[in-house]
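ok here's LEU7 protein:
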Amino acid sequence: MAGPAALLESLRHQAEALRILQAVWEGREAVATPHLPHSSPQPSQAQTGSTGQPGTAWHSSGGEVEVAGLGWAWEPQEERKAPGKYLEEEGESGDLTPLSPGEPRPQRLSQPRLERPRTLREKALHSKLSRAVDAASRLVTVEQTLLLPLIQQHPFPLHPKDSIEFRNTCSRMALPREGQQFEKDLHEAHQCLKTIIEKLICSLEVLPPESYIPVRSALRQILQNLLAM
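and the structure:
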């Protein structure tokens, strides 16, 4: 039997996995639907994350999110309008003010890509990633609010190694990998979540039914949403 310490360890790994999943989801959203910010563009400096790969910082409501390997950066507006640089007026087709003699030619900014419709494959990946983020978030909430008080009264079996594997899988998803490798990692993340939830449901069976029915119902709902097509 395991007590609160084992559940807290699992929660720690799951919370880290959830943070990574949310960053991956926000990063892919930023790539799929790039747009000009409403206010003056702020510079996004290329950074190096824990993986050692260069990335681009994207600003969102949850803070700065680093997405590796995108190579996008905004130049500050005050720099773009500095003397001696090309000035491109809004709505024109590319008429530029010439540089003064002897001044070096600055590198032009690449324009943001227009939003394009997602392919069916991209829609499927987006849906699967969204379900994983939602399931991980709900699982952490249920464990904190329902399972933690329950295990303090009635210890039951836990498997923290599954949460460790889930965190490791999400860490691989944050690497700058696309195509089949990303799909494989996302599938493994789904399987890890499925395993964690199913084992929790089975572990609750050792407790008196009246104590675990609400928790089991919540876990089954999370599992159903995760596996929805």
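+1. The chain has six helices and three strands.
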